[in-house]
Amino acid sequence: MNDAQQDMTALEALATRASATKLSAPGPSAAIIAKALQAATRAPDHGMLRPWKFLLIEGDARLRLGQLMAETLKRREPHVSADVMRRESEKPLRSPLIIVVAAKVQPDHPKIPEIEQVASAAAATQNIMLAFHAAGFGTMWKTGQAAYDSTVKAALGLAPHDHIVGLVYVGTTVETTGETRRPDHSDFVEAWNGPRA
Fold first, then answer.
1. Is the per-residue pLDDT at 40 higher than 90?
2. Consecutive H or E run containing 76
3. How far apart are CA 118 and CA 19, in angstroms?
4. What single-letter DSSP state applies at residue 95?
5. Is 112 exposed, middle or buried (0-12, 13-18, 19+ CB in 10 A)?
6. 20 forms bridges with which residues in the sheet?
7. Is the peptide bond before 26 cis (omega within 30 degrees of 0)?
8. In a 10 Å sphere around its CB, with 0-12 CB exposed, 13-18 middle and 19+ buried, how is residue 106 labelled?
């Protein structure tokens, strides 16, 4: 972490974060990972349900995840080509660390709707990405069909009703989306003065 990153404020991190398009080793240290995951637990959490699960996938575990992703792709699409299968199996090798962020939901909670539990896990994901950005590392938030596959969920220790919110790829940034034009917030804001007729 360099001095500029040490001095990065929360607003600077929010204003400068961009998704990486290519990552490489080295990945973050255990201490930086711990700080990012601690930041995740600051996500809004209605009812303090703590509906989060964070799975760290590194080293050879990435190969096993890739094999799982390829096998489940073949099950969903039996006629998929060998080349597509190979590309699917190599996806987890895009970075030295993957953090699977899941929402461990209580579907029939009497007070907290399921969407709020999933939203809490999504907020935790954003916190993770901002923390790594502030520490000088790049991230990519991915999903794809594998994230919604019941076999993949089971292999990761999740129940069918749980949700994989994202696979956060983490590493040293090689390329980013850069300073693409961001929309002006005013494009999404309007004053509300009461029900429409």
1. yes
2. helix 61-76
3. 21
4. S
5. middle
6. 176
7. yes
8. middle
Q: Does the pLDDT value for residue 1 go beyond 80?
A: no
**51 DSSP assignment:** -
Spell out the domains of the chain, with CATH numbers in brackets. 24-58+93-176 (3.40.109.10)
Instruction: Read off the tokens for 168.
Output: 């956060």
**Residue 18 in contact with residue 65, Cβ under 8 Å?**
no
Residue spans of beta strands (DSSP E) within the chain: 20-24, 52-58, 97-103, 138-142, 163-176
Q: Say yes or no to pLDDT of 98 above 80.
A: yes
* Lookup result for tokens 């199996």: 89
pLDDT at 6: 54
For residues 67 and 92, what is the distance between their CA atoms, to the nearest angstrom?
9
